[in-house]
Amino acid sequence: MALIDLAPETRSFIGSDKKMLIGGEWTEPSKDAAIPVINPADGETLARIGDAAGSDVDRAVKAARRAFDEGPWRTMKPGERALLLHRIADAMAAHAEQLAQLETLDNGKPIAFARMDVQAAIGAMRYYAGWADKIHGSTHSIAMPGEHHVYTLKEPVGVAALIVPWNYPLVMAAMKLGPCLAAGCTAVLKPAEDTSLSALRLGEIMLEAGLPEGVLNIVTGHGHTAGDALVHHPGIDKIAFTGSTATGKAIAHAAAEGLKKVSLELGGKSPNIIMPDADLDAAIPASAFGIFYNSGQTCTAPSRLYVHEDVADTVIEGIAAFGKSMTIAPGLDEDSQIGPLVSQKQFDRVTGYVRQGEAEGAEIVSGGRRHGNTGYFIEPTVIAKTTNDMTVVREEIFGPVLVTQTFASEEEAIALANDNPYGLAGCVWTRDMATAHTMAKKIRAGIIGLNTAMGADWDVPLGGYKQSGIGRENGRDGLELYLATKSVFAQLKPAW
Ligand code: NAD
Question: Fewest Cβ atoms closer than 10 Å to its Cβ: which of 64, 204, 441, 496?
Answer without folding.
Answer: 496
